[in-house]
TrEMBL record:
InterPro entries the record matches: Antitox_Xre, Xre-like_HTH, Xre/MbcA/ParS-like_toxin-bd
Residue ranges of domain Antitoxin Xre/MbcA/ParS-like toxin-binding in the record: 123-171
Residue span(s) of domain Antitoxin Xre-like helix-turn-helix: 76-116
Protein name per the record: DUF2384 domain-containing protein
Region (Disordered): 1-24
Length: 174
């Protein structure tokens, strides 16, 4: 997707929450294991608090505990039907996974992708969780009036959202 000559939504600086230390560390490119207990979503859905890429990948391959789905719903102010659409996992499949207790590898990968995007949005908003959720749920012209969270329903879309977040965080306007 070409982003040239399209306006982008620049976040307003808001009051920082308890995630400010982690968000600031992420913005400065410091290791992901900086004070993860403050609320980053990716460690909570993966069960890997160290931020170790290999451990996260191993957790994805094993399949996440189904408990990550209600957690995502809560963290994204979403419901099961909407989350099902964003993750491209039918609600009937989610019902079966709930009974089984675990997601498969592909589903876990999609959950991790969404959690990572939410964490990036929180970092972009300098630790303001509510501002991040509002940004993720606001339709943007750059995504043909889809919300960033809707646009991220595919890997390519998620990369577009990550690219936009990176551009906003680094002040790159085009």
């Amino acid at each position: 997707m070409a982003f040239q000559n399209r306006p982008i939504a620049v976040p307003k600086k808001g009051k920082a929450s308890s995630n400010q230390t982690v968000a600031s560390a992420l913005t400065r490119g410091q290791p992901a294991d900086v004070n993860l207990s403050t609320g980053l979503l990716l460690p909570r859905v993966t069960g890997v608090s160290s931020g170790n890429h290999r451990e996260i990948l191993s957790s994805i391959r094993k399949g996440f505990n189904f408990g990550c789905i209600p957690l995502l719903e809560q963290e994204l102010h979403s419901n099961r039907k909407e989350l099902s659409s964003i993750l491209s996992i039918p609600t009937s499949t989610l019902a079966r996974r709930q009974k089984a207790g675990t997601l498969n590898t592909d589903e876990s990968d999609r959950v991790a992708r969404l959690a990572r995007l939410k964490d990036s949005a929180v970092a972009m908003m300098q630790g303001d969780n509510e501002a991040a959720i509002n940004w993720l749920r606001t339709p943007l012209e750059i995504f043909d009036n889809e919300t960033p969270i809707q646009h991220a329903s595919t890997e390519m879309g998620a990369r577009d959202v990550e690219d936009l977040i990176g551009r906003i965080r680094h002040g790159v306007f085009s």
